[in-house]
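1st attempt posting a full record on here, be nice pls
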Amino acid sequence: MTLINKKICMGKDIGIHGNVFGGLLMAWIDEAAAAFATEYCSTPNMVTLRVGELIFKRPLKSGNHLRIYGEVAHLGNTSIDLKIEARRFNVYSGEETLVCTTSITFVRIDDDGVPTPIGESVKRKHHENVEV
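the predicted structure (as tokens):
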């Protein structure tokens, strides 16, 4: 998986149970995945179509470092499916602990919001990387 974003959890991010608020973590994941999808597909015209089940495995606390990883699970004609993992990073040991997993689908759209094909050069590059 590719590292696609880093965050430091801060006091303002904490919910009533002393952990990072789940909705905020979901927003961080969506933002990081969107940036990854737009770069991968060489277009800014990607929108979130679907977020799969989010599995919260471990809590995040104030001061924790978060790393978000992504990889392409499938590249379609107009869409891209990503597998996403959020991991707590220990700055002392370098150890990472899985805190959340999900999948996200993005669709390329035109100016009217209509799905439009992902560029052929992106598809060729993807298939070359998959075959390696």
